[in-house]
Design goal:
Blueprint: E1 19-27, H1 33-51, E2 56-65, H2 75-85, E3 91-94, H3 97-100, H4 104-117, E4 121-124, E5 129-130, H5 137-170, E6 183-188, E7 191-196, H6 201-212, H7 217-226, H8 232-238, H9 254-261, E8 269-272, E9 275-277, E10 285-287, E11 294-297, H10 306-332, E12 344-346, E13 354-361, E14 367-374, E15 390-392, H11 393-411, H12 415-459, H13 465-511, H14 521-527, E16 528-534, E17 538-543, E18 557-560
Parallel strand pairs: 1-2, 1-3, 3-4, 12-16
Antiparallel strand pairs: 4-5, 6-7, 8-11, 9-10, 13-14, 14-15, 16-17, 17-18
């Protein structure tokens, strides 16, 4: 007797079976009212189908306006999938497969694997697809073919857009966004051309002249600030190349100066297409290889000659090689975790202290990293400059250990009591985290209900399209932030048991003032609220507990002078 494939059997729907339906509608382009009305059309068609099937009950409508179907990272879709995973929806209805998605692999994965595994019925109305009525392998092939056609359509559109942009680039048209500093963009004879900006072009020439004459990029940045010249970012906002009365002046950075010195646009050359989306499915950018570049010479007036540009490039390359050789040993060593990140601040300007590292080769032949901290504001050249402050990590560890030991001795804390008290506090923190997770879950549900209410108001003309879209984005942003906070708390809760045991062991070692005990980030953040560094390597330590007790965020402090 021949075997009968299970895939060829019809999935029977019990007569008493009822379905909670989620309607999904998507529109890839935000545009005219006519196009946005297609969202209403998609939902209306699905609702009419539900009316004709009494076993179905509408749970909610989920929409994505202005979202591409080539990937499934969409707010409305993710919201629907959360309800699917929560067993609140067991049937998904779309107008057609293209509204569900235009990536045939991911779409097929949802329709043929994820939804069946979760017991979810999927219906694409105009395509005549119902996963509970698929009778053979042929039906699955039809679904795959239609998804493939939808993806090919998206690919074809992307190719046409890319081709159109490439044609513009071949004609010497500037297809970028904001024009480079020193130029303006104007339409001339059907081409978007770069035109010399009278206000900023002279500044660009000065930067090249100063660098060629031997000034460092840091000195050039300081000179630009002292001359009252706005940075490119501030210039775009104010329209003023030089500081006007009442305007704040920001300092130039070495990075900004280097970008100007290495941009070939200033020698009359357009280099475009250096980055692009990874195929047509991914919106993030990536660097293209040299074969993908579009290079056109003489498309606009140059600000510097080719000789000057390449001379500057050679000087930059020479400096880069020198720096690379100097820093090669340091880069081969792995970077350790910054234990004081988030608790170490400058006592004057209140900014976070920045960590720096250097490598040293020992007589044994081993190479080790030495870490230190400094105030980044002390290197500024504007009115925000702060007095110079620095401290090595080894000295900071020694001060912290000494301060902790003194606090423990004065409070007469025994290891067992200290660990027990910490475990008690950890238990209380767990309960608080659980309460927050429950509260965030309720807020998520409320956000989903608000989303449905907003759409009903828009559908009933109580809200305009602009009002609906604005409120929808705000609500989705709020729900997303709540979900992120909830996920972070759940992750924190799952790791607290391990951390409690580890920190308990380290606390015992600290009480003994063991020099070999390493101050980990967990220990520092558990025991210390804040460390302020002042001139003369003087520090003030604010503990997260007070003597004879361990209470979080108390303002007991101690100072040590180096």
């Amino acid at each position: 007797m021949a075997r009968t494939s299970k895939r060829n059997t019809t999935k029977q729907i019990p007569p008493s079976r009822s379905f909670h339906v989620g309607i999904y509608a998507r529109l890839s382009v935000e545009g005219t009212m006519r196009k946005n009305e297609s969202i209403d059309t998609q939902i209306a068609i699905a609702k009419q189908y539900i009316k004709e099937h009494p076993e179905m009950e509408l749970y909610g409508c989920y929409t994505d306006i202005g979202r591409s179907g080539t990937n499934f990272r969409r707010e409305g879709f993710e919201c629907m999938m959360q309800d699917v995973r929560g067993k609140r929806i067991d049937c998904v209805i779309v107008k057609d497969l293209s509204r569900f998605g235009r990536n045939h692999i991911e779409a097929g994965n949802y329709i043929q694997k994820i939804f069946p595994f979760m017991g979810v019925r999927f219906i694409a109305l105009t395509d005549g697809i119902d996963t509970f009525e698929m009778k053979s392998n042929t039906d699955e092939i039809v679904v795959n073919l239609k998804n493939l056609v939808n993806e090919m359509y998206a690919s074809d559109i992307a190719a046409k857009v890319t081709s159109s942009r490439r044609c513009s680039q071949e004609r010497g048209s500037y297809t970028g966004g904001i024009p480079p500093y020193g130029y303006q963009a104007e339409w001339i004879e059907g081409r978007r051309c770069l035109v010399v900006c009278p206000e900023t072009s002279g500044i660009v020439r000065d930067i090249y002249g100063c660098y060629i004459s031997g000034k460092s990029m840091g000195k050039i940045a300081r000179d630009l600030y002292e001359r009252g010249i706005h940075t490119p970012g501030v210039y775009r906002k104010t329209g003023h190349a030089y500081r006007q009365e009442g305007e704040a002046l920001e300092q130039w950075t070495v990075g900004t100066v280097k970008l100007i010195l290495t941009n070939p646009v200033y020698m009359g050359c357009l280099v475009q297409g250096t980055t692009d989306g990874e195929q047509y499915k991914i919106r993030s950018r990536q660097e293209m290889d040299n074969g993908g570049y579009c290079i056109r010479h003489g498309t606009h007036e140059r600000l510097v000659s080719e000789d000057v540009f390449f001379q500057a490039a050679a000087m930059i390359e020479k400096g880069a090689v020198k720096y690379k050789n100097k820093d090669s040993i340091s880069k081969r060593l792995p970077t350790e975790e910054d234990s004081y990140d988030g608790v170490l601040f400058c006592g004057v300007c209140q900014k976070k202290m920045a960590r720096a590292a250097n490598a040293k080769k020992l007589s044994t032949g081993d190479t080790v990293r030495h870490y230190g901290y400094h105030c980044p504001s002390s290197r500024r050249i504007d009115e925000w400059k702060c007095p110079v402050k620095s401290i090595s990590m080894s000295r900071l560890d020694k001060l912290v250990k000494t301060a902790l030991y003194q606090e423990f001795v004065l409070s007469e804390l025994h290891p067992g009591r200290l660990v027990k008290e910490y475990e008690r506090q950890a238990g209380e923190q767990k309960q608080k985290i659980i309460q927050k997770i429950v509260r965030y879950g309720k807020q998520q549900e409320g956000g989903k209900i608000r989303g449905s209410e907003l759409y009903l108001k828009y559908h009933e003309s109580s809200l305009s399209l602009e009002e609906y879209y604005h409120l929808k984005i705000e609500n989705e942003k709020s729900v997303h932030e709540i979900a992120k906070k909830k996920e972070e708390l759940q992750h924190r809760l799952s790791s607290m048991e391990r951390e409690t045991a580890e920190i308990g062991r380290l606390l015992c070692n600290l009480i003994k003032c063991d020099e070999k005990t390493r101050l980990t980030k967990d220990v520092i953040h558990t025991l210390i609220h804040r460390i302020d560094v002042y001139e003369g390597k003087r520090v003030k330590i604010t503990f997260a507990f007070r003597r004879n007790d361990l209470l979080p965020q108390c303002e007991t402090s101690i100072s040590e002078r180096g």
